[in-house]
Structures are given as structure tokens and as C-alpha cells.
Amino acid sequence: VMEVSNGVLEFAIGDRVVVGPGISCGCCKFCTSGRENLCPEIRILGFNHPGGMAEYIAVPPMAVREGWIHKLPEATALEYAALSEPLACCMNGIQKLDVDKRSRVVIVGGGIIGCFHGWLCREKRAERVIIVEKDKQRREKIGRLPVADTVVETPESVEFCNVVIIAARAFPDTKWLAEKLEKGGQLLLFSGVKDEFPHPSWVNLVHYNEWKIIGSYGCTPLQVGKALETICSGNLPASRFIDCVIPLEGVTFAFEKLDRKEFLKAMIRFEE
Predict the structure, then answer these.
(1) Of 100, 161, 102, which Cα lies nearest the Cα of 130?
(2) What Å distances lie between residue 250 and 33, 57, 245, 257, 261, CA to CA?
(3) Helices (H), the chain
(4) N or C, which terminus of the chain has less Cβ within 10 Å?
């Protein structure tokens, strides 16, 4: 924190903080029930409110008031704390699922989001976690992380499952779902899908198999705090998910590496 407005008592100059991405109204039915991510007036820092890759950001009063800002201990590296938002979003999805020791989970997409979903499912003692990732280089990287029992190239390699998590802009075809997702199974739509989304001929399967279809979007202030707590505790091996920490001048290099699937996560660190 470099500067504090009059009337802000929770924070002081020099505090190290995580800034959650939401600016919610605080008074709608969603905000008052702890579902701030669904606030109809919500604005997102870096999307429809200034704040993406900026050296400084003026955090709106509403974000401070609604608890989106969290202090972090001195012992926690800033790079690790910056993982709080993506981890919080994954927590939002997993909290909506019933995952336990009987769960056979298939995660479509092996980016940082798919990996965090895998780690959270293993924390819930899922019987088996399988990540589907078409890129060979990324599959090798995922295989060295504590996020999955198996990493496969295509969904066809999966025998059967009772939980499917969509963590990439891809959706399994109807035939695969019919053959692999058990009756009573759960399907989490975490990621948005491509515009050429297939005709939902699988909807009848939802009816006959009593599948549970769940949507997940963003996170809440409480979940950001929970994610930060998980990182600060050392439970999540944060350093293993970060491929490089670079100055802003190197951002083009980082994006090129990400495009080639050579990185899972790159961090920008401004000079202090």
C-alpha cells in the first residue's frame, strides 16, 4: 500500500495486500447472501475497470468496503500471494461439487486452472484425478506436480468417471459423455466454451442419467481470503506452479512462452 484515503482505517502505508478482482455493490440479494461474484453491478479490475498490469492502482472504496482486500503475512512471498485469485476461483467451483473418496474426476484442460482443480480434488481425497491435456510439453510439466494421478492426451483414454470439470474452452462430445460419465455424475462448467459450441444433444442424457450440471464463475471476497490462507499455510506448494518471475519489460517474452505451452504461470514483478 503506497497511499491511503481519508476514512480508511483497515489498511496503512506499507501493508502488503492481495487485491481481489471484484468491485461489488454490497447491497443486492447476491452480495448480502455471500455470492458477490453474481452481483449484477460487479466490475472486474483489469477488465471493465482499470487495473490490468498497472504499476499502481487506485482501489475503489466499494472494493475496500466489501472485503475484497486482504493483508498477507511478511513471510509470504508476493509471487505466491498473487496465486490467490485463480485458486479462489477454483475453490468456488469445487465447493459446488460433491467430491470425496469415491470420486473419479476428469479435468479437461491442463493449464494453471486445471492444475488447481486437480490439487483441490486430491485434497478432498478423490479416488482418482485425471487431467486431459493435448500438449505434450504441458503434460510432462503437469506430471511433475501433485495435481493428478494420470495425465492423458485425449478424453478417449479415460475408462469412466463420475465428475467432469471443464477447465478449458473445449467441451466433450455427446458420445464421450454418454460412454464415460456415470449415471448420477456431475459436470462442472468452469470455463466458457468456444462460440461453435456443439448442439446440446447431450441434454437428454442429463435427464435420463440424472447428471448434475453446475456453473462456476469467479470468486467471492471470502474465497479470496481462504485461498490466501491456504497459500500462507504452505499447504499449497506455490513455488512449483510458477515458471518465472519477470519485470514488466519481459511480458512479451512471457506471453510467447505461454502461447507455446512452455509455462503454466508467469509472474510480473514491479521494481520496489
Answers:
(1) 161
(2) 42, 20, 9, 11, 17
(3) 61-65, 78-81, 84-94, 112-123, 136-143, 174-180, 203-209, 221-232, 251-259
(4) C
Residue 117 φ then ψ, to 5°: -60, -45
* pLDDT 10s digits, 26-68: 999 999 999 999 999 999 998 889 888 788 899 999 999 999 9
Rounded Cα–Cα distance for residues 158 and 165 (Å)? 14
84 φ/ψ angles, rounded to the nearest 5 degrees = -60, -45
CA 220 to each of CA 39, 48, 118, 158, 200: distance values in angstroms, whole numbers, following the listed order: 10, 17, 20, 33, 30
DSSP state of 248: G
User: Reduced to 3 states, what is the DSSP secondary structure of residue 155?
Assistant: helix
Look at the block and give the residue holding cell 479435468: 107
Distance CA 189, CA 97 (A): 11
pLDDT: which is higher, 196 or 214: 214
pTM flag (> 0.85): yes
